[in-house]
Amino acid sequence: MRKLVYYVASTLDGFIAAPDGAYDFFQLHPDVTAHLATNWSQTLPTFAHQQLGIDEPEGRFDAVLMGRATYDPALKVGVTSPYAHLKQYVFSRTLPPAAEPEVEIVSTDPVEFVRELRRQPGRDIWLCGGGQLAGQLLPQVDELIIKLNPYVIGSGIPLAARGFDPRRFDLVDTRPFDSGVVILHYARPREAE
User: Fold this and answer.
1) Spatial CB neighbours of 130, under 8 Å, sequence gap ≥ 6
2) Most buried residue among 82, 120, 127, 131 by CB atoms closer than 10 A?
3) DSSP state of 97
């Protein structure tokens, strides 16, 4: 079965964006950017590939899930398919169907949709954000890969917006960078599978 991987940037206090959705305070430091281009090229927007020297993005994903607020910044600058190298699923009850074949607007229950998507053949699925969608899908998440940034912002969009419901993940790997960013890789405990 395909794995659902929540790969996202976060502050030390667990926010993925400011209260208004802005995330420009997450700086892309050269050491982290080089690592992402080499190891996580599929998670970089298609329009950035040429600038970063990525010919063919490689990796474990063939699909990405986004909430409406995560998709909106691309729409605001006229990019209707930010990850054209992946099948993109955008969860929204208000967006019309997308014109691009690689973008599907999903208005149904995210949990049921993801359960069915995981049963289909393919590679792993990247949960890109946002906090509301991640909160709904957290019980389905197999791995958390958090780019922990050295900032405390006090409030914003949480990593997973949901009621109190502790979920344990086991630490698999850590990768610290000179810039202060640490990539933390967690997996759902085996007994939870």
Assistant:
1) 16, 17, 21, 66, 67, 69, 70, 157
2) 127
3) P
Q: Which residues contact 21 (CB under 8 A, 6 or more apart)?
A: 69, 72, 73, 130, 157
Q: What is the pLDDT of residues 11-68, one digit of tens each?
A: 999 999 999 998 999 988 999 999 999 999 999 999 999 988 898 888 899 999 999 9
Model-level pTM?
0.93
- pLDDT of 192 strictly over 60: no
Q: In angstroms, rounded to a whole number, what is the distance separating the alpha carbons of residues 10 and 18?
A: 11
Instruction: Name the nearest CA neighbour of 161 among 128, 135, 133.
Output: 135
**CB-based contact 8:134 (threshold 8 Å):** yes
Q: Answer whether the bond into residue 131 is a cis peptide, omega within 30°.
A: no
Domains defined along the chain, listed by start = 10-161 (3.40.430.10)
**Side chain identity, residue 127:** L
